[in-house]
Design a protein that fits this description.
alpha/beta, 223 residues, globular, TIM Barrel, 8 helices
Length: 223
């Protein structure tokens, strides 16, 4: 199985750069400094029109934690329905409880609503209080993949937990390492964890635009 590279894109330019330089999928969001929020509808339409690789859209109504009020959940539902209407390829979200567990009731509602779009549980996973239990809950909610740094700030630091999660997941769900991944460490991370998909913003300076050379290096280090 060829390893896949997902690039987090915060503007149209990044999406175009990602596709041109070998990315396999785009995670589309806005507001890099807030960790990614639901993007402007105009941006979604532009990216879908001007790229051909799969586009997964971030479903996140606000910055901060992932404990959402009923009103915020309704906004997330509207965002998912919009993504379906626009023919996006997938959606990305995560909902937590105050005690650090997965809010399975809401997650199941949102996954069901998103069908047939595949759903990624994002790095809210890195805040869980029991990652083994959370893994099973997310599988039960019928997510297709988990984006995680191995319950650490950076994926390279969480590589032991990443490898453990991949072994526990077997073929039931994709564990996709992400979190500060750069090309210089990617080969080591891939070989150590056994992961088949990886996530990076490929941003190497203070702006929000992906770097073409970094994407090329990321991709080449997966081959």
């Amino acid at each position: 199985m060829n390893k896949k590279l997902e690039i987090a894109c915060f503007n149209l330019e990044s999406a175009l750069i990602a596709e041109e330089n070998g990315a396999d999928r785009i995670e589309l969001c806005e507001n890099y400094k807030e960790g990614g929020l639901f993007p402007n509808v105009v941006l979604i339409k532009e990216v879908l029109t001007k790229t051909t690789i799969p586009v997964f859209v971030m479903i996140r109504p606000r910055s901060g934690n992932f404990i959402y009020s009923p009103g915020e959940v309704e906004i997330m539902k509207q965002q998912i329905q919009l993504c379906k209407q626009l023919n996006c390829d997938g959606v990305v979200f995560g909902v937590m409880n105050e005690d650090g567990s997965i809010n399975t009731a809401v997650c199941k509602q949102l996954v069901k609503l998103a069908e047939p779009l595949p759903c990624t549980f994002h790095r809210a996973f890195d805040q869980v209080n029991d990652y083994s239990k959370a893994l099973e809950q997310i599988i039960d909610c019928r997510f297709k993949r988990i984006l995680t740094s191995g319950v650490n700030t950076y994926a390279i630091i969480g590589k032991n937990i990443l490898r453990e999660l991949i072994q526990k997941a077997e073929d039931r769900i994709v564990i996709m390492p992400g979190g500060g991944i750069r090309s210089a460490q990617l080969r080591e991370l891939a070989e150590f964890t056994g992961a088949k998909e990886f996530h990076s913003a490929a941003i190497i300076n203070e702006n929000e635009t992906a770097n073409a050379e970094e994407i090329k290096k990321l991709k080449s280090n997966l081959n």
